[in-house]
Amino acid sequence: MFDSGVGGLTVFKELIRLLPGEDIIYLGDTARVPYGTRSANTIIRYSLENTGFLIDQGIKILVVACNTSSSVSLPILARHHGIPVLGVIEPGARRAVTISKNKRIGVIGTEGTVKSGAYERTIHALDPRIRVFSHACPLFVPLAEEGWTDGPVVHLTAQHYLTPLTEEKIDTLVMGCTHYPILKGPIMECLGSHVQLVNSAEETAKEVAHILENRNLVHTSSSAGTYRFYVTDNAERFRKVATHFLGTQPAQVDEIGA
Ligand code: DGL
Description:
The protein has helices at about 10-20, 40-55, 65-80, 90-100, 110-115, 120-125, 140-145, 150-165, 185-190, 200-215, 235-245, and strands spanning about 1-5, 25-30, 60-65, 85, 105-110, 130-135, 170-175, 195-200, 225-230, 255. The chain is of the alpha/beta class and about 260 residues long. A four-stranded parallel sheet has the order 1-2-9-10. Strand 3 (about 60-65), helix 3 and strand 4 (about 85) form a beta-alpha-beta unit. It is globular, with a radius of gyration of 17 Å. The mean pLDDT is about 95. D-glutamic acid binds near residues 3 and 109.
């Protein structure tokens, strides 16, 4: 799996919960994060490079944990290699379509994800009658990385970003960015309990489990999976910020350079 940086650990966390026997190789492109403000062409180039590195490790499935990368590069990545390639957009979109009753769905993500229209397209392909309201929430990323999950700054920021969505009377909100599950508490508080949250990371992990089962690719050994973490820069910061996402520091993180 790869992500633009540390945020993809929300997907990693869900994966190891559902598939504890699988070996996972995680690549965080920390030298070139954030992807959320970059052009589609640049993100595609970075994503192809990340994919190349992981393919060389002999992986059996590729999970693109980054929403921004998934929203622009997935069809191109899927074309290049003979293994299943899964992004986070479709699993999240499918869940939202299933649970929305009033057919008004909100989507929050990076500027890049929102601009790509990937969630809208996927939701509309599943049900064209659904109204989708999207909003970029760029400040949520540094807040999550700093571990600011409570207090006035995060509440004001949530209010600022989410009020336009509550005014649209959404009943479902897709957290379409790796970092947002860390801020689930303040997001829920701001929206109220009548809005259901979709965690794309969780839905993606379920989908990975399905794919592995359907293709007979599940690792059947009774021993626990092993985890290898690679970053393109600053392994020390990755380890530190990882504690906000995993609750523990990954044992070993190797720097491979961009
Ligand atoms: N991983 C990115 C995403 O899910 C968020 C951070 C970034 O902008 O690179 O869209």
